[in-house]
Automatic annotation (TrEMBL), chain A:
Keywords: FAD, Flavoprotein. Residues 26-361 form the FAD-binding domain. This is FAD-dependent oxidoreductase. Its cofactor is FAD.
From TrEMBL, chain B:
This is DUF2783 domain-containing protein. InterPro entries: DUF2783. It holds the Pfam family DUF2783. It comes from Bradyrhizobium campsiandrae.
Length: 549, 63
């Protein structure tokens, strides 16, 4: 059916399997999907060698995840691979919602200008993975091993022992840390015996990649109960190479084996596009979804990320986008633990922060699912009433829920945050990911996120310090002074950060706000840095001295 | 704000007649759909989440 030529990466026997020696690796990633590959790149960017095991030797079949949001693009930009994704993909920010054949509501995901990255791109998952694989292959710290299937995992005291099957048989490896990115049906999760519970939805969806030349605008179009697919919903996205992605809601009674046959799929598409439409089917799949998450993202020395840790409904593009943010949260923490700069307990904050985000994603995607698939007759009347009223009255439009599109969840309650002393600084609270803004460096235009770098960063407005860095023991932060190191010619940086002279922010290595103050105070910055690395100097007064010693 | 449970409608008989008459020629489904629209319109007018929560709880408890 497909015209896309999938690459074959090829199996290579590893030296350790050939030699029959058991080697211990600092980090082994299970699964070379978007999340596992991003993990490899992020650990390598932090100087850690990584082995990635994947039981296959190619990329995703079909477009699958499709939509990638602004925050993952910022993370991939830190890993130097966002530009080829945006160049290859289709950028969009407008979504339209139709009820029957009438426009009910339209939204703009990025109403504010002056951001480097688009609100959302659509890109077939296979293209995205090819970009990530090429980037991994060019990195000497990353060892991608295809046709390597994890068959058992045990956890003795200070490492994990992995039995791995390849075309050459079974061999044993050891890992200080295992990152499980092996998807919703994660075998690794079963091997550690973790709970993975939540809600299944009694509904089925047909998803199709369709090659066609069409004049739909580059927008997300969502139909409730359209004339061409009565009683159900339909979603249309444009992707690269004139491939369009169409999702048809089928209902619970649908027979998945019959519905994926081209003779059933083609008439549905023809009903939507018209009798004369010229198109060909690239890929078809049927799915039923669930909203569930693992009981703890950290299972000893195994850390779970992406769909292996949490599964959401597809409405809102919260699956892959959340998974990439799991890695953004984990990589700096594990790198610091491996370097001995932070206690192992810092890894527990990975569960705390990302389970909080997963619960927020599950809440949002469950609400969207309940709106799209009303459970009772009366709830359908409410749903239809919202859609009817939204055509004429602004008040009803915020109630229309065809999926709330992925935005980062602030870690509002995280123990790594230093609470605000001064509440007059604006919306960039501790636990929030840094807002980007146009800046200039030595007269040349740049972006704020580029200057934050890989470590802790202090950004201060005004002339409160002449220092360029601050350190305590192995912890260090560079100091960026707005007006000295970077300029804010448009004033947008100060506006987005509610800044006045003296305003000082401490950013974590994942570009989240750890703390902020109305003045520059070195002692407070050091305390906040200790707290953000799981060494609370307030609770452990000796911690500061020990680290300094 | 608290949900106002004291009489607040100036001409109660007239209001009640208007409400019931507005659905006189509707079948049950049409009437239920109209009720859904009416609830949403009124809820938005009230706006106050505490009041809405209290009203939902009182309506659910039936009396």
């Amino acid at each position: 059916m497909t015209n896309h030529i999938y690459p074959k990466f090829g199996y290579l026997r590893s030296k350790e399997q050939a030699d029959g020696v058991v080697k211990r690796h600092p980090i082994v990633v299970i699964g070379a999907g978007p999340i596992g590959l991003t993990a490899a790149l992020d650990f390598a960017a932090r100087g850690q060698p990584v082995v990635v095991l994947d039981d296959n030797d190619t990329v995703s079949i079909g477009s699958r995840a499709v939509c990638y949001a602004k925050r993952p693009l910022e993370i991939w930009d830190r890993l130097d691979c966002a530009s080829p994704m945006v160049d290859r993909g289709v950028s969009w920010k407008v979504g339209k919602v139709f009820f029957h054949d009438q426009l009910s509501y339209q939204f703009d995901l990025l109403p504010e200008s002056d951001h480097q990255w688009p609100a959302m791109i659509n890109l077939q998952q296979y293209h995205l993975e090819e970009i990530l694989v090429a980037k991994c292959r060019a990195n000497p710290l990353i060892d991608l091993r295809w046709k390597h299937r994890l068959i058992s995992l045990k956890q003795p005291a200070d490492h994990a022992t992995l039995a791995v099957e390849t075309p050459d048989g079974i061999f044993t490896m050891e890992a200080e840390w295992v990152i499980a990115c092996d998807g919703a049906n994660s075998d690794t999760r079963k091997m550690v015996g973790a709970e993975f519970t939540g809600q299944f939805f009694q509904d089925r969806f047909l998803i199709a990649d369709v090659a066609m030349k069409a004049d739909f605008p580059t927008e997300r179009w969502f139909w409730f109960d359209p004339p061409f697919h009565p009683g159900q919903s339909v979603l249309l996205h444009r992707q690269a190479d004139n491939i369009w992605r169409i999702d048809f809601q089928l209902g619970w009674e649908a027979d998945p084996d019959a519905e994926r046959q081209p003779e059933r799929v083609i008439p549905r598409i023809r009903a939507m596009l018209g009798e004369d439409a010229q198109f060909s089917l690239e890929w078809v799949s049927i799915y039923q979804f669930a909203c569930r998450r693992i009981d703890n993202f950290r299972q000893g020395r195994v850390l779970f990320a992406g769909d292996a840790a949490h599964q959401v409904s597809p409405f809102g593009a919260r699956g892959a986008n959340t998974g990439v943010q799991d890695i953004d949260n984990l990589a700096w923490k594990l790198a610091m633990v491996l370097r001995g700069e932070a206690p192992e307990a810092l890894l527990d904050s990975y569960h705390e922060e990302r389970a909080y985000a997963a619960d927020d994603n599950i809440l949002n995607s469950t609400r969207a699912t309940d709106f799209i698939t009303p459970k009772t007759k009366v709830s359908r009347y409410f749903r239809d009433a919202v859609l009817e009223l939204a055509q004429h009255h602004g008040f009803a439009r915020p109630l229309v829920n065809s999926g709330r599109l992925s935005v980062p969840t602030p870690y509002a309650t995280s123990a790594l945050n230093t609470p605000d002393e001064d509440f007059a600084i604006g919306e960039m609270r501790p636990g929030t990911n840094a807002a980007d803004a146009p800046i200039s460096v030595a007269g040349k235009p740049s972006w704020f996120l580029h200057c934050l770098g890989d470590g802790f960063t202090v950004v201060t407005f005004g002339k409160a310090t002449d220092k360029t860095g601050i350190a305590i023991g192995p912890l260090a932060a560079k100091i960026i002074r707005v007006g000295r190191d970077i300029e804010d010619p448009s004033g947008l940086l100060a506006a987005r950060y509610g800044a006045s002279p003296g305003t000082t922010y401490l950013f974590r290595p994942d570009q989240y706000v750890a703390a902020r103050w109305s003045g520059f105070d070195e002692t407070k910055i050091i305390e906040a840095m200790l707290r953000a690395t799981g060494q609370d100097s307030a609770r452990h007064p000796a911690g500061q001295k020990e680290l300094a010693a | 704000m608290m949900l106002n449970l004291a009489p607040n409608i100036a001409d109660p008989d007239d209001f009640y007649a208007e409400l019931v008459n507005s659905q006189r020629n509707l079948d049950e489904e049409q009437a239920l759909r109209m009720n859904a629209r009416l609830i949403l319109l009124l809820a938005n007018h009230i706006g106050d989440r505490t009041v809405l929560t209290e009203a939902i709880a009182r309506a659910r408890a039936a009396g």
